[in-house]
Amino acid sequence: MPALVSDEHRQHSEYISLLQSQNLYPFCFEVTSPCNHRIVVANRECINFISNNYLGFAGHPKLQEAAEAAVRQYGVGMGGSPLMCGTTEIHNRLKEKIAAVYGQQDTALFASGYQALIGAIQATIGKGDAAMVDGLVHRSIVDGVTLSGSTRRVWVHNNMEDLSSLLTRVQSKYGRKLIIVDSVYSMDGDIAPLPAIKKVRDQHGALVLIDEAHSLGVLGRNGRGILEHFDLPDGADVIAGTFSKFAGAVGGFVTGPKDFILHLRHSASAYIFSASLPPVMCATVLKAFELLEEEPQWRELLWANTRYFLSGLKSQGFDTGLSETPIIPIMIRDVEKSIFFNRSIFEAGVYASPVVYPAVAPSKCRIRLGVMATHTRDDLDAALEIFKKAGKEVGII
Ligand SMILES: Cc1ncc(COP(=O)(O)O)c(C=O)c1O
Question: Which of 35, 187, 244 to mutate to test the pocket of ligand 1 (most atoms within 8 A of CB)?
């Protein structure tokens, strides 16, 4: 019988076992509190820098009330896909809300952002077409391109010359050319230069898909994402996103023209062959959209905290890479130092996430931080002190 774990995979598992045996394994700690600015992890209360719950909505009482009411009305799920019994009146209200937020005609909802990205790509391109992806896009996009049957062509991160030259080179080789970017990059925290991307799109007759995962609720005067940020309402042809960041919930969406969304509903297997987003999540996310309008203080606090923390880290001498948003990497560029740094801050009361090989190249290893609107100044000051000590210990500042 062939071994269930191949030799190549065994090497990786052995490395993980080694970290576990030395009490250095940094993943899957048991959490026993809500995901607030303080989080209880492995029986220890920590300052929370690991989440994407930027606005703190996961713990907002109004979202919890909305969720409880929806559970009483619809139970925990609909037991079918959106095309079957999975579309309720709450789904329809959420679909309309998202279309209105983005100035689009219709929306498809998914049980996760990962699926939404796959569905969006499946519905837009296929065999004979090309996905022109930025070098740092999220894994859901890479997998979506593979499943679509199109060819993946990669351009240098945020480099318009490279994108333009690639499009010129492949012009007659493929049918449709779909440029795909993350509006905000999930590991580096920088923003896609959408005005320049739009220009390149128009010059080359391409299409643009944006992944709004870390942009909705964060960018723009009203938190409506990158299109509002750049005042570019027609800057994207297909818009996909997730509820797992701005709403601290779960689920995903694709919004666009009516005929495109109708086609998606009847062609994207990620949409057709999976259970619908539970109504409890729709009600929660609808409330999150309401709060974006009614409680703008959360976005203001998020940005005030981001500016304060980023400048604090920089003045201590940390390399924060390209960050210009609440996603802040502390670039360590070494696997072992990253693991030790993370262990040291955890023991001192900060919970954050190391991003190490094989997820990124060893030279790109870092600790990824997510700033929250609900972090207090005391949280941020305490974390800065803890980082300074750990940074000196591992010799990166
Ligand atoms: C940029 C980006 N796109 C898509 C996703 C997938 O979202 P979800 O967590 O809703 O599956 C993520 C989540 O990590 C992400 O960071």
Answer: 244
